[in-house]
């Protein structure tokens, strides 16, 4: 397979490794970028523990929580330019879709698109989006949503960067007011530290096996004796947990406390246990590669038309 400069550039962007190292890894991986990342990590040339795609698409992340606090949703609606993302009609569309996702019975995007639009029941959601595409002249897409439902717990949302990142957290506990306070802190933590799981038990075994093998190869490549490699691997797995598990992370407000300890302290203070049931963190455009246009070429094309 031909290894292109674009592939090398993307791998370098995702790992921080040198150009030649990236090219060699891609060649060894026959162009498979995920495999190339593993190869670079095994050689100690990349430290990426989280899968991070290139952030490029425009649009908004929106959240909605019902007045009774029982239903909520986080959604992502994409468009082509930041200019349209700030348009009042687009903002209203995204807010309406967040509310509809929270209150809907739809379990996926396709089902939601077929429902009658919450702001105009005479048309389905897909037609409301099409109408705005025609009006503003840009392609738009309801990309994804995550729903939340609770009877006795609390839902807390947080939008960062004017719709760049959206968080929703679901907590359970006896003290509703206290849960809302804790939820705000956890939402800020999730926005800043980007955990992938709540606790260690949530990490899939195949992911752990993959990490262990990478750490083992790292240690062997560093020339460590076989007899201490296993201890090194487990030490690095514990560090991995602290990176990707919310409960194990250091609290951004007080680096002397983990989130687990913070929750224990707050539970004692409120006189009731606090449990993190679920969270979602959407970042605008994550994993989408936006088509890059050469401005000079674009102008030239328009002149020729």
Automatic annotation (TrEMBL):
GO molecular function: translation elongation factor activity
SUPFAM superfamilies noted in UniProt: Elongation factor Ts (EF-Ts), dimerisation domain, UBA-like
Pfam (any one): EF_TS
Domain Translation elongation factor EFTs/EF1B dimerisation positions: 72-286
Gene3D superfamilies: 1.10.286.20, DNA helicase RuvA subunit, C-terminal domain (1.10.8.10), Elongation factor Ts, dimerisation domain (3.30.479.20)
InterPro entries given in the database record: EF-Ts_dimer_sf (IPR036402), Transl_elong_EFTs/EF1B (IPR001816), Transl_elong_EFTs/EF1B_dimer (IPR014039), Transl_elong_Ts_CS (IPR018101), UBA-like_sf (IPR009060)
GO cellular component entries: cytoplasm
Assigned protein family: Belongs to the EF-Ts family.
Role noted for this protein: Associates with the EF-Tu.GDP complex and induces the exchange of GDP to GTP. It remains bound to the aminoacyl-tRNA.EF-Tu.GTP complex up to the GTP hydrolysis stage on the ribosome.
Protein name, UniProt field: Elongation factor Ts
């Amino acid at each position: 397979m031909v290894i292109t400069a674009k592939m090398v550039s993307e791998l370098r962007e995702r790992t921080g490794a040198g150009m030649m190292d990236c090219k060699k890894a891609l060649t060894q991986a026959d162009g498979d970028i995920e495999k190339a990342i593993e190869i670079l990590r095994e050689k100690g040339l990349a430290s990426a523990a989280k899968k991070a795609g290139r952030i490029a698409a425009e649009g908004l992340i929106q959240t909605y929580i019902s007045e009774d606090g029982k239903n909520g949703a986080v959604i992502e609606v994409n468009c082509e330019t930041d200019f349209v993302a700030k348009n009042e009609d687009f903002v209203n569309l995204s807010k309406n879709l967040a509310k509809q996702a929270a209150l809907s019975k739809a379990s996926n995007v396709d089902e939601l698109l077929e429902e009658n639009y919450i702001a105009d029941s005479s048309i389905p959601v897909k037609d409301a989006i099409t109408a705005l595409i025609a009006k503003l002249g840009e392609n738009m897409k309801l990309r994804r949503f995550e729903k939340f439902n609770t009877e006795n717990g609390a839902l807390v949302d947080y939008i960062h960067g004017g719709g760049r990142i959206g968080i929703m957290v679901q907590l359970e506990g006896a003290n509703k007011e206290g849960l809302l306070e804790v939820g705000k802190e956890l939402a800020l933590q999730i926005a800043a530290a980007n955990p992938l799981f709540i606790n260690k038990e949530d990490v899939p075994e195949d992911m752990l096996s993959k990490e262990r093998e990478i750490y083992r190869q790292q240690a062997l490549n560093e020339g460590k004796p076989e007899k201490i490699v296993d201890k090194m691997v487990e030490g690095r797995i514990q560090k991995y947990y602290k990176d990707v598990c919310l409960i194990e992370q250091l609290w951004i407000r007080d680096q002397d406390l983990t989130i687990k300890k913070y929750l224990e302290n707050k539970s004692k203070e409120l006189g009731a246990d606090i449990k993190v049931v679920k969270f979602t963190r959407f970042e605008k455009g994550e994993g989408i590669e936006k088509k890059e246009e050469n401005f000079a070429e674009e102008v030239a094309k328009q002149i020729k038309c």
